[in-house]
Specification:
Number of strands: 10
Order of helices and strands: HEEEEEEEEEE
Largest sheet: 6 strands, antiparallel
Helix content: under 10%
Number of helices: 1
Distance between the termini: 38 Å
Bound molecules: (2~{S})-4-acetamido-2-azanyl-butanoic acid
Radius of gyration: 16 Å
Strand content: 35-45%
Length: about 140
Amino acid sequence: MIVRRVAELIGTERDVATKNWVSRRLLLKQDSMGFSLHETTVFPDTETYIWYKHHLEAVFCVEGEGEIQLVDGAVYRIEPGVMYALNLHDKHYLRAKTKMRLVCIFNPPLTGREMHDEEGTYPLVVEAAPEKSAA
Ligand code: 9YT
């Protein structure tokens, strides 16, 4: 069994900050759950373009207010109790009006230090197959 508190992750490798958000990664690939689980705090008055082309993500808002806008124009309000799932690898803008605290789940799991690249994407980390030993 694994028990972790967000407070114990602060300042460790599992604490990843960017200009618009900070993510505390409670579960990662190395925890072998098949998904990763993060508490993400999005800073107020920010807009982040995101496109998880290699990952599926579900997000549950526990605090704050904001919105998500798909590139086709649809806008959804985010407030505590709202979940959104990027089941179609949807390109979107995430806007925080106030500080937002979000619980995020990624499949496949993140490995740890991922940061968005210029496309708003995380790389897909694929492990090399183990070398076959000569018979
Ligand atoms: C909601 C969202 O995707 N925010 C960006 C950070 C991401 N959740 C992460 O890496 O934890």
